[in-house]
Design goal:
This protein has 2 domains: 241 residues, 3-Layer(aba) Sandwich (Aspartate Aminotransferase, domain 2), CATH 3.40.640; 126 residues, Aspartate Aminotransferase, domain 1, CATH 3.90.1150. Helix content is 41%, strand content 13%. The strands form 3 sheets. It has a 7-stranded mixed β-sheet, sandwiched between helices. Strands 10-11-12 form a 3-stranded antiparallel β-sheet.
Length: 390
C-alpha cells in the first residue's frame, strides 16, 4: 500500500491544463458580476474566437464538442435514414451524434500515414443515401479536408470537421475552422490545447447554420437569457420555436476561454518544442514517430502519439504498464469504434474492414505533452521510454 501511495503521489500525468492568474482573475470577475450562466463573457469569448479565426466566421459557444457536433448535424438537416460517412478511429461522440438524428454512420478506414480519415475511401463509400461527411483531425494534425471538399461538392454533400484536437492547426496555410466546410467544432475539454474544463465552439461561415445552432443550443428559445434580461423588452417574454437542447456555455467557462485564447499561440509553441525534443530523443528507438504536417503547416500537438514497431519486442499494453510503474501517465487514442460492442453489433463491423485503424490501435501510445510540462518532466518521460525500449 505504501508503494502504491508513493507512486500515485509522484505520478507524472498524461495531461494538465495550463491555468494562470489571468484565468483565475477572469473567473472571479464573473462570479462577482452575478453572471455565471450564459452572459456577457460568453458573448465576448465568441467574438474573440471568431476574430482569431478571421473575417466571415461566426462562433457559437457550447458546453461540449459533442454538443457542437450535434447542433451541426441538426442544422444541416440530417435525419432518419440518412448516411453520414466518418471514421472509426475517433472518440464515440463523433458517431453517436449521427445516431441522435436517427441517421446511420458509415465507417471508413484511416490513412496509416496520418491516422486521419482516408479521403479515397470516403469517396468510394458515397451512396444515394449519403448526406454528409464528418472528418476527424487527429492529434492536432489536419485531415486532408481539401481532397474531401472536391468530391463533396461533386455529390452535393455537406462537410463537418471534428476539430476537437486541432486548435490552432493549419492546412495549406489556413487555420482549421476557416476552410470550406459547412461547420467545424472545437473542444475545450480539460486536456485540450485551450481548456475551459468542459466546453466547445461551433464555427461556420453559413449564417443559417449559425442562427439555427444559437436557437437549438438553449431549448429552441428565440432569445437567450442574457438578451432577455438585459434588453428593453420584458425578460419573461420569449418563444419556443423548436424542440431544442441544453447546450449553452456558462460565463464561468467562457471566462477561462477568454484568457486561454490570448495564450493559445504561446501554448502551441511550447507543445511544438516538446514534440521536437521527443522526436530527437526517440529517433533511433524501435518506434514510429508521429505523423508530421505538410511543409509550412502547423500541428497543434494536442497529442504526441508514438507507434511501437514489431522489433520493440514488447506489446503496447505492457509498455504502458511499465511506464506507469515508473510514474508516467500514458493514454491510447483510440480504441477504434469497430472494436466496441455497440458499434460492432449494431452495424456488423468487422476487424478486416478496418485494417489500418486496427493495426495502429494495437501499437499506439499517447505520451504526456502539455504546455506546463517542464524540462525535468519531459526528461522523466524520455528516460522511461528509453529504459523500457533499449
Amino acid at each position: 500500500m505504501a508503494t502504491a501511495t508513493r507512486l500515485q503521489q509522484s505520478l507524472l500525468p498524461f495531461a494538465l491544463p495550463d491555468i494562470g492568474e489571468e484565468e483565475i482573475a477572469e473567473v472571479v470577475d464573473s462570479l462577482r458580476s452575478g453572471w455565471i450562466t450564459t452572459g456577457p463573457k460568453t458573448a465576448r469569448f465568441e467574438r474573440a474566437f471568431a476574430q482569431f479565426l478571421g473575417p466571415g466566421i461566426e462562433a457559437i459557444a457550447v458546453n461540449s464538442a459533442t454538443a457542437g457536433l450535434h447542433l451541426a448535424v441538426e442544422a444541416i438537416g440530417i435525419g432518419p435514414g440518412d448516411e453520414v460517412i466518418t471514421t472509426p478511429h475517433t472518440f464515440t461522440a463523433t458517431a453517436e451524434i449521427i445516431r441522435y438524428m436517427g441517421a446511420n454512420p458509415v465507417f471508413v478506414d484511416i490513412d496509416p500515414a496520418t491516422f486521419c480519415i482516408d479521403p479515397d475511401l470516403v469517396e468510394r463509400a458515397i451512396s444515394r443515401r449519403t448526406k454528409a461527411i464528418i472528418a476527424v483531425h487527429y492529434a492536432g494534425l489536419a485531415a486532408r479536408i481539401d481532397k474531401i471538399h472536391v468530391f463533396a461538392a461533386q455529390h452535393k454533400l455537406r462537410v463537418i470537421e471534428d476539430a476537437a484536437h486541432s486548435l490552432p492547426t493549419t492546412l495549406k496555410g489556413r487555420l482549421v475552422g476557416t476552410l470550406a466546410s459547412d461547420a467545424t467544432v472545437f473542444s475545450f475539454y480539460a486536456t485540450k490545447t485551450l481548456a475551459t474544463g468542459e466546453g466547445g465552439m461551433l464555427v461556420t461561415r453559413n449564417p443559417e447554420i449559425a442562427r439555427r445552432a444559437r436557437v437549438m443550443r438553449l431549448h429552441g428559445i428565440d432569445r437567450d437569457a442574457f438578451d432577455r434580461y438585459t434588453s428593453n423588452k420584458p425578460g419573461w417574454r420569449y418563444d419556443v420555436v423548436a424542440p431544442g437542447f441544453k447546450y449553452n456555455m456558462t460565463d464561468i467557462a467562457a471566462a477561462l476561454g477568454i484568457q486561454q485564447l490570448l495564450k493559445l499561440l504561446k501554448f502551441q509553441a511550447r507543445r511544438q518544442q516538446l514534440a521536437e525534443q521527443y522526436n530527437r530523443e526517440f529517433a533511433h528507438l524501435p518506434l514510429s514517430l508521429p505523423p508530421e504536417p505538410l511543409p509550412g503547416d502547423t500541428h497543434a500537438w494536442h497529442l504526441y502519439v508514438i507507434q511501437l514497431r514489431r522489433e520493440a519486442k514488447i506489446g503496447r499494453d505492457e509498455f504502458i504498464r511499465r511506464m506507469y510503474e515508473r510514474g508516467i501517465g500514458c493514454s491510447v487514442h483510440y480504441i477504434p469504434l469497430h472494436l466496441h460492442k455497440y458499434w460492432r453489433e449494431t452495424y456488423g463491423l468487422k476487424v478486416k474492414d478496418f485494417p489500418h485503424s486496427t493495426e495502429v490501435s494495437r501499437r499506439i501510445v499517447s505520451l504526456p505533452i502539455y504546455s506546463r510540462m517542464t524540462l525535468d518532466d519531459q526528461e522523466r518521460v524520455i528516460s522511461a521510454v528509453k529504459d523500457i525500449l533499449s
